[in-house]
Amino acid sequence: MTDTLGARTRVDAIAVAVAFGGSNVASYLLTVIAARLLAPPVFGEMGSLLALLAIGAVPAMGLQTVIALRVARAPEQDRGPLVTLGLMTSATVLVTALAVSPVLMALLHLPGPWAVLLLACSLAPITLVGLCYGVLQGTQRFRSMAHLIATEGVGRVGGTLLGLFVFRTPAGAFAGTVAGSVVVAFVGWLICGRPVPGPRTAGHVRDVLHTAQALLALVLLVNLDLVLARHSLPAREAGEYAVGSVITKIAYWLPYAIAVVVLPKLADEKARRRIVPIALGVCAAVDAVVVLGCAVFGRTVVSLVGGSAYAASSLPVWLFALVGSLLSLVQILLYSRIAGADRRSTSLTWLAVGFEVVLVLGWWHGSPTQVVAGAVTATALLACFGALIEFRSRVEPVEAR
After folding, report:
1. pTM reported for the whole predicted model
2. Secondary structure of the chain as H, E, C letters
């Protein structure tokens, strides 16, 4: 492809963004409907299980990233070994989730085993969908990828809603998740051309493990400040912080389509040198609008997100938007270093997680502003050091020669 972020890339990004936005709306509606159908204690159980589902989906993200890069480097290669890798990863996730189910049941004080067991079973097809996304992303079939994203929004979320309506229990909801995810995985397999398994490749397994734990650190960083606020702040202020965290996630996910579209291009070193600064600039421009809007219309934004109960809140929502904006930049930088087989950024992301925990729990936990300031500090330092690593990666080969 000769364009860097040209017209076709912009159209692809819009298609992915629309599909992904629709999927996020469906997930939001799931939470809203569950809150109205279930009693508060049962909804609390459902909410905790949905959080576990998000964490359990991280291996799928790692699998998707590795396969996308592998396919982008060799578009004509046999898909067999990659399908085998997907099946192995899916089986490993399933066995691990089932093994830890008793611990999770005790930790979350669940009344029975079925909800967590069904959640564990849903992770297998969800991981296989990650395989399909990786193939489509690596071959830059972004419109087909957008169709699959929309199918997952309808199938997985729709299946969960159907189970919730029929059984009115978390276990019933996750039975629907399993059924819907199996359908989505099958549709993804058809879209990818019905690839069959081939010889196993050990190096790919190591790549998936590394990429999954790198993305896990990023997922933790996206959600960490909310957990720390819940632990440190009074109930009322923690509730306000939860509203602010919605702004963080909007700013983080808004330019996500840029990361999806540029990832396969990062497989080529020369293209990576051109594309990363442009992708960072586009993400920064998109999120600058969000940060500026939150700074000017802060109270209105809080009311729109949280409702009239938060109309009088003085929450500094622009700081939450800034955290999400910095995280979107970190994501591009992390993808670049994963594509370059450079593990320094992964270690740096885990260090940022630890630094934010120490900073907030040790000192900055007296108000929502202090907690979000801790998140801003940790993510800003991570973005700066990540950019430094990216710059040094460009000059190191020259110095070596």
Report:
1. 0.77
2. CCCCCCHHHHHHHHHHHHHHHHHHHHHHHHHHHHHHHCCHHHHHHHHHHHHHHHHHCHHHHHHHHHHHHHHHHCCCCCCHHHHHHHHHHHHHHHHHHHHHHHHHHHHCCCCCCHHHHHHHHHHHHHHHHHHHHHHHHHCCCHHHHHHHHHHHHHHHHHHHHHHHHHHCCHHHHHHHHHHHHHHHHHHHHHHCCCCCCCCCCHHHHHHHHHHHHHHHHHHHHHHHHHHHHHHHCCHHHHHHHHHHHHHHHHHHHCCHHHHHHHHHHHHCHHHHHHHHHHHHHHHHHHHHHHHHHHHHCHHHHHHHHHCHHHCCCCCCHHHHHHHHHHHHHHHHHHHHHHHCCCCHHHHHHHHHHHHHHHHHHHCCCCCHHHHHHHHHHHHHHHHHHHHHHHHHHHHHHHHHC
